[in-house]
Design goal:
4 helices, 82% helix
């Protein structure tokens, strides 16, 4: 039972990182968040990505992950 739970959690984390790499070309959640925010902004993506990377430099990885998942949730529900 515990082994199955651990394998399932490893699978979920692996799919998260594989999805990040396929969608954003990045494994790091902070860089993926910067790309996501740049794509959703009104400014051209190349220019906006520079600014969003500056915004996400000071964030921790758990904060970036939480904000990335929140962005995905907003995209799904909004």
């Amino acid at each position: 039972m515990i082994r199955n739970t651990i394998v399932f959690l490893l699978f979920v984390f692996g799919m998260f990182f594989a999805g990040n790499y396929l969608a954003y070309g990045q494994i790091d959640p902070c860089r993926a968040l910067a790309v996501e925010e740049a794509r959703r902004s009104a400014a051209p993506t190349g220019m906006a990505e520079t600014w969003t990377r500056i915004d996400t430099i000071g964030m921790s990885r758990p904060t970036c992950t939480k904000n990335l998942v929140r962005s995905w949730w907003e995209r799904l529900t909004g």
